[in-house]
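Hello, quick one for you while I still have it in my head. I'm working through a protein record and want to make sense of it properly. Would you mind checking whether the tokens look sensible for this chain? I owe you a coffee for this, so here goes:
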Amino acid sequence: MTSPYRRALATPGAPGFVVAAFVGRLPIAMVGIGTILLVQARTGSYGIAGAVAAGAALSEAVGAPLVGRALDRLGQARVLLTCLTVHLAAIVGLIGAVRAGAPEPLWFLAAAACGAAMPPVGACVRSRWTAQLGDDPLLGSALALESAIDELVFILGPTIITVLAATVSPVAGLAASASFGAVGVVALVRQHSTDPGPTRGGGGTRIRMLREPATRRLVLTFLATGAAFGGLDVSMVAFSRAHGAGALGGALLGLVALGSGAGGLAYGARSHRRVLEVRFRLTAGCLALGLCLPLLAPGVLVMMPLAVVSGLAIAPALINGYGLIERLVPPAARTEGFAWLVTAIATGVAIGSPLAGRLIDAATPRAGFVVVAGCGALAAVIAASDMATRAKP
């Protein structure tokens, strides 16, 4: 199973940018939960906490395509460092506003700035792989490896921040997130040899992407998937607290990511006979089935194995989605194409997180999992529709 991954990592410069990007991506899995924990500790409401976290996710969604376009035009170093500076300042502002009891609109403003300036490390590292490997068949394994690393991020990130929030304070969790982001982004920027640099010829691409039916359906599928993820974040934290195990909320999310990472590694190491479009539909259907499983858990002990199984199809579905966008968009706009999928997921999180939070406040933590299952089913329906992707072989 490891052979294609070894060959991909033998690509010059790959180990360095993979490690740097891993560290730099940890805030993606930490900021949302950290915001929820910080605001909920202050207000006692998951609905308000989810709404503030959704503000960060929504602003990230709005900003990601613009940042992606800037990356394609200006190169990674300038854009990443600018984003990092604003992101760190916004985290400090968010912590200060909540802790000081400032008016709630300031909380949303700081969270929005934090999300809008989130350094798009995932899109950058995928662009580096694409630039290094081109049409090499190893690119599929490299993208699978990246999806598995994403899941490792979502194993460690929530676990680190919930443990710090429970044992130290929510502020410590967000401070750790900021530190990881700073170290990872700076390390990635310093690796000039693998930076694809500015590309030309991508003007107007963003509008064409949205007008293409195949790309639009792909983005909508990721939107629904992101809504399921947003609901899952809030629901797992609330579920664990309702069962007297608040520090395990991040660990439960980590188990979902563990299952996803294992599924992604197994999937990426195999050769596949079915065309990419069919594989995307099948894995989206499996994803929907898996996201129904948390509804069956009566307690934390049963939730643990169900969380692992529920995550098995997440990475394979995302791998196929990233593979499709890589084939659908022009080479000069690949970073922007990847950013649109990030946008879709972030927008979905902004929808699913407060929706699940409101239901939890009004009913029980289990009500939040209804949002998760419903959004997963919607993603499968969109993916199974007449996608007509026309992706280049």
Confidence is low (pLDDT under 50) at residues 202-207, 388-393. The domain at 15-384 is CATH 1.20.1250.20 (Growth Hormone; Chain: A;).
